[in-house]
Amino acid sequence: MIEIHLLLLFMIGAAVIAVEIKDNLSSIIAIGAVGIGLSMAFLVLKAPDLAIMQLVVEILSLIILVRATIRKDLPFSASGRWAFNTFSTLLFIAVFLVSAYFALKQIPVFGDPIMWTSRTYINEGMQKTGAMNIVAAITLNFRAFDTLGETTALVASLIGILAVARKVAREKEI
Question: Does residue 61 lie in a domain region?
């Protein structure tokens, strides 16, 4: 469980940075780091569906927030901090690749259920639901409320993106 503690410390640190930093764009990126940390925590806790949902909503909300603030706040555009920008980009890529390596090493063999719930779904899903497709049986019978919640969150994110894009398009016309 040391991974969870490290992720929590990372998320708390990113949240403090998001609150204390003066630059809006950097604050949005720090908020995104909190969301990515939460997604990784869901993966560590063996909840990949929540991790995927958190990642999708986080990316969509970051797009909305960056789009809303990019014209008002360009901190590194003319500051001459190319060395810092290059170093931070390379550091991010290195951390991402190392994290991806360790995450992909943990993936079980294809088709091997890792939890008893998935074994129950596979072994008894057809008999309990009467469905011919096991994926549809799991999605619509066993995980219906979870699927409804994920779909609702995706639709809300898309509505937010369309609202921001429409507002920007109206401002360009004027």
Answer: no
102 within domain boundaries: yes
pLDDT of 12 > 90? The answer is: yes
Residue keyed to tokens 């096991």: 134
Residue 91's domain spans which residues?
Answer: 78-107
Task: HSE, CB side, 13 Å, CA atoms: give it for residue 134.
Answer: 10
How long, in residues, is the chain? 174
CB 92 within 8 A of CB 100: no
Report the alpha-carbon distance of residue 33 to residue 39 in Å, rounded: 10
Give the number of other Cβ atoms within 10 Å of residue 36's Cβ: 20
Contact assessment for residue 73 and residue 24, using Cβ atoms and an 8 Å cutoff: yes
In a domain, 38, yes or no: no
Q: Answer yes or no: is 28 within a domain.
A: no
- Write out pLDDT tens, residues 45-103: 877 777 888 888 888 888 888 877 776 655 555 556 677 778 888 998 899 899 888 87
Per-residue model confidence as pLDDT tens digits over 31-40? 999 999 998 8
Domains held by the chain: number: 1
